[in-house]
Amino acid sequence: MICPFCGAEKTRVIDTGEKNEGTVVQRRRQCVACRKRFNTYERSSLGMPMIIKADGSRQIFNREKLTKGIQTACAKLLVSSARIDALVDEIERDLQNSTKREINSRVIGDKVIAGLKSIHPIAYIRYAIVYFKYDDLSTIRAEIDRLTSEGL
Ligand SMILES: [Zn+2]
């Protein structure tokens, strides 16, 4: 975000709030160079529900961020970028078709998990470890055993 006062490229968010029942996110920013403060407003693009994060804050659906997360899970595996794009498209379309104005980020996570499961078992496990916060080997092993028994 470029500072409207001095044109510096670095600003930091000092506060995030909501307006209009969560359909607009207001961010208070401060320029790192001239230290002046200004507000930015983000509105969900038409038809897209706002995403409710685990901490209760609202965010606009971020396609790049979702793509990056899936790409990371698929890194060095034989998964084409077309396959990744198709999964992101599918999730984005589901959101656009939703009549809800707000959607829990967990819903998106679940869709990614379900999609990765059919794309690549390793990508699925990588994503699941982060997503479900698996922090012990026995849980991860049990999940791998379950996948193996399902024939993946
Ligand atoms: Zn500035």
Domain unit count: 2
Spatial order of the strands in the main sheet?
Answer: 1-2-3
Radius of gyration: 19 Å
Mean pLDDT: 88
Total number of beta strands:
6
Q: How many strands, what sense, and barrel or not for the largest sheet? A: 3 strands, antiparallel
Provide the helix percentage.
40-55%
By secondary-structure content and strand pairing, the structural class works out as alpha+beta
Describe this structure in words.
- The protein is of the alpha+beta class.
- The protein folds into 2 domains: 1-43; 49-149.
- The protein has 5 helices and 6 strands; from the N terminus they run βββββααβααα.
- The protein has helices at 63-74, 81-97, 105-119, 121-131, 137-149; strands at 11-19, 24-31, 37-43, 50-52, 58-59, 102-104.
- The strands form 2 sheets. Strands 1-2-3 form a 3-stranded antiparallel β-sheet, with no helix packed on it. The protein has a 3-stranded mixed β-sheet with strand order 5-4-6.
- Strand 4 (50-52) and strand 5 form a beta hairpin.
- The N and C termini lie far apart (44 Å).
- The mean pLDDT is 88.
- The site of zinc ion has 8 residues, from loops.
